[in-house]
Amino acid sequence: MRQGWRWYGPDAYVSLDDVRQAGATDIVSALHQVPIGEAWTREAVAERKHLVEATPPGRTPLVWSCVESIPIPDAVKRRGRAAKAEIEAWIASLEAVADCDIATICYNFMPVVDWTRTDIDHPLPTGATAMAFDQDRFAAFDLHVLERPGAAADYSDEDRRRARATFDAMSEGEVADITRTIASALPGSTSEPMTIPGFRDKLDQYREIDAARLRRHLVEFLEAVTPAAEARGVTLTLHPDDPPRPLFGLPRIASTGDDYAALFDAVPSRANGMCFCTGSLGVRPDNDLPAIARRFAERIGFVHLRATKRTGDGRSFHESDHLGGDVDMVAVLRELVAADRTRPPGRSILFRPDHGHRMLDDLDKTVSPGYPAIGRLKGLAELRGILYALGAPPD
Predict the structure, then answer these.
(1) How far apart are CA 109 and CA 129, in angstroms?
(2) pLDDT, tens only, 100-150
(3) Cα torsion angle, 26, 259, 183, 155, sign
(4) Would you please indicate which residues are annotated as catalytic (active-site) residues?
(5) Dmax of the chain from CA atoms?
(6) N or C: which end of the chain has fewer CB within 10 A?
(7) Which residues pair with 106 in a beta bridge?
(8) CATH-assigned architecture of domain 2-116+202-389
């Protein structure tokens, strides 16, 4: 297996030398400066690839081997194949990536909001901080800040009581913080920042779209793009919903093993793959992660390894240590190692540590939420240790 590292580009506080020191060999990156829906150019991709791979004398080489992500415009999620111009632009971006010999593209199909948290610096007993999703705070935002029409029907009487009490205890600063965290798009997100009125308008555009229709639009998108991907040897890997359940009355269609099975049945192209994210899928107690890894071993094109810890009634959670929480990381890696051993040389599974804790010197720095250097370095070291113990040291 190959050790990856998400890198936000030349303006990120984490440098390429930091990545080398962490022990990673493969860069996972994207052209975040390009507006959503605008086609990437070969020149822009080649410039980023040169920046990553032009190894200074005496330094360990790095390779840009995975794009995360080429954002899928909202129009595609709402209209499917009818969003022809947006799909054509996405294919042009895919082709630019393939022309630069990058063979894996990660993407998601979450409508309106991408990965969602209510807190980006939840305090831990160690003094470090982690990102967290608190169900009561989320409900308070949905019901009393966003004031989503019809939202009350999605919550029980007890949920609404707790949400009201939570909202009443919030200061103006706390309301502003949670609004910024949920509506303003976290780093690496493939959704656009929104004001509260804009958020409501966007939700209104989805009022006729249920899970079946959203899934149909994803299938139509894949039917349009997988021929281009397959012709160029590119694997498209769908990231799970995060968290893996409906939010804001919106459907989610990549939350379980059966969701992925339905997608693979509908679009059997070998270019149609899975990003196996243990943290996202692990939030649901009914997701058996080792079994999912075993079931889709041939479809897994990219792996995010992190663990989450469910709290309260199970709907709240926070990012735990990579070897802690509710994810049996040893069992997961055992399955992934078995799958990796069946692959030909040069096609080993790429994984990366995900969503590390903010700790040590990073507590005094401005860091991308979920992507501090030290917490991810710690996670990667722990994951590497499991691989050595399984007799499968990383490539």
Answers:
(1) 28
(2) 999 999 999 999 998 899 999 999 999 999 999 999 999 999 999 999 999
(3) negative
(4) 239, 277, 304, 354-355, 371
(5) 64
(6) C
(7) 68, 237
(8) Alpha-Beta Barrel (3.20)
